[in-house]
From TrEMBL, chains A, B:
This is Molybdopterin-binding protein. InterPro entries: CinA, FLAD1_M, MoaB/Mog-like_dom_sf, MoaB/Mog_dom. Residues 9-170 form the MoaB/Mog domain. It comes from Candidatus Viadribacter manganicus.
Length: 256, 256
């Protein structure tokens, strides 16, 4: 039995990523979170804090993939445009919602004032379900197949813990990485392709050079497959392929 | 006189970024390289090593932006699909080209064999001009408004040095960052929006919380503008905005 491949897209929202001010680390965190659930990230986009760009990105991705995960743009400041953009995408009303407001009231009572700006974080599109934020409380939300999260990486990690149970995954694609030393891509390329062809689509192989200055170099050869038996064979084949050059091959990771 | 805004897109190509195996750092490097040339990155996408996905991404982005910069997929192995995809995008022939072949022959003579796999790196679409690779020699190329680079970050940095002179930039957007301590977004959001509104589009403001566990926190407030006078005023306004809360404000960087 072959399980369905379930695919997701990630939409990173924020001027600060495009300007180079901020190094995104959310894409990698989301991809690593989803993989063991049987969901592969098949595309990602980064757009600015511009409603039209957010709307266009979400619409393109939600039609094409099973799930969409967004980060950024749900804070209290004027450059946070994501929630309203999502309401526009789904053609629904958006306003301060009681359940979200109650979360903020409980959090901000006392020291800090729940002013109009903070109440913006309780604006939730009609029909969305909240995503808990264990870090700073202001919730994310799910609407349709789109999961809307904050941009701060620690909050993303927190919100993902309230998302896993909502995901229906498919085949879990696992990978094995074999590290070869003093071997170059051009020397193994033909054999690597032959290995992939022989699997008839069951395994995909990737080759990634590494350099450790001043003079160490080599390759990480990666096999990816949803079939554990084919993957195990592929890892052994990669080790043999490298050792046939008379150089070291190391099994860097286990299936994960 | 208002200079034209010149915009670029970045297309990161590679299964390894989408799977989370590799943390991309090329987007940030490209954005920081282009900014002082008067080119703003307005969108980025990440696609897998799948010809159709590469072609679709390039076509969408090259029609919409002044320049497109791609990374990844131009090595010697079977999962390197970018060069052929570019030929398809522009509807031109692709084959081993003499100028690219000469570069590889000079590099590989002696110790390493210039075999068929390595010769794949001399496959260049008709009409493209080469981009020098000072690290590992195999060239990138420019075709139309698309710059095709390798995926390895050190090679990207090297190739960018052969790209700058080909770029016709516009207005240089500079930024100033003011760091406030013990101040929360919700407390300054209304005033921050008022500052942006008052500039009538000359300056855009962004707000980015920071946390330094266990108990330090604050904001980076960022002003971005192509107008140096408006930017200087914006930076001073941001400092005043934060100090009005009775907390520290620090000018973190100069215009750059």
């Amino acid at each position: 039995m072959t399980q369905r491949q379930v695919k997701a897209a990630v939409l990173l929202i924020g001027d600060e990523i495009l300007s180079g001010r901020t190094q995104d680390i959310n894409l990698q965190a989301i991809a690593k979170f989803l993989a063991p659930l049987g969901v592969q990230v098949a595309e990602a986009r980064v757009v600015a804090d511009i409603p039209e760009d957010i709307i266009e990105g979400v619409n393109a991705l939600r039609a094409k993939y099973d799930y969409v995960f967004t980060t950024g743009g749900i804070g209290p400041t004027h450059d946070d445009k994501t929630a309203d953009a999502m309401a526009a995408v789904f053609g629904v009303r958006i306003d301060v919602r009681d359940d979200a407001r109650a979360i903020l009231e409980a959090h901000y009572k006392g020291a800090t004032n729940l002013n109009e700006s903070r109440l913006r974080m309780a604006r939730i599109p009609d029909g969305a379900s909240l995503i808990a934020n264990p870090v700073s409380r202001a919730p994310g939300f799910q609407i349709g197949n789109v999961f809307v999260m904050a941009g701060v990486p620690s909050i993303v990690r927190g919100m993902l813990t309230d998302i896993g149970h909502r995901i229906e995954g498919g085949a879990v694609v696992r990978s094995r990485t074999i590290r070869g030393r003093s071997v170059r891509e051009g020397d193994i390329a033909a054999d690597l392709e032959a290995l992939e062809v022989a699997t008839e689509g069951a395994v995909s192989f990737g080759s990634y050079p590494w350099f450790a200055p001043p003079d160490s170099f080599g390759l990480h050869l990666v096999a990816r497959s949803a079939d554990p038996v084919a993957l195990e064979k592929a890892a052994n084949d990669l080790i043999a392929l490298i050792r046939a050059r008379g150089v070291e091959a190391e099994d860097v990771n286990d299936a994960s």
